[in-house]
Amino acid sequence: MNEVPSKLEFHFLICTNARENGKDCAAKGANLMLEELKAWAKTQGFSKKMRINKSGCLGRCEEGVVAVAYPSSEWIINASTNDLEEMKKFIAKRVS
Ligand code: FES
Hints:
Elements (H helix, E strand, L loop, with lengths): L9 E6 L14 H14 L6 E6 L11 E4 L3 E3 L7 H11 L2
């Protein structure tokens, strides 16, 4: 094992988990949000500075869609596709 510093300024993980009971982030549009944010980040030229990735369950399913940002450890809960513009602003502020 090797520990190395991150090459990224920012990492944004969006839960896209689907559960049998339907109380999950996938049912609330997480996959659409993930794809929209990834496509937007690419148009902004952020690809070398940051990553937006899907995540498994982040343990706050009732509050989905849930996302977490690193290295700031900021959590976003109760997000929806209506929040995409606000999420883009959130990300853009953290990527120089
Ligand atoms: S399904 Fe998204 S936090 Fe659990």
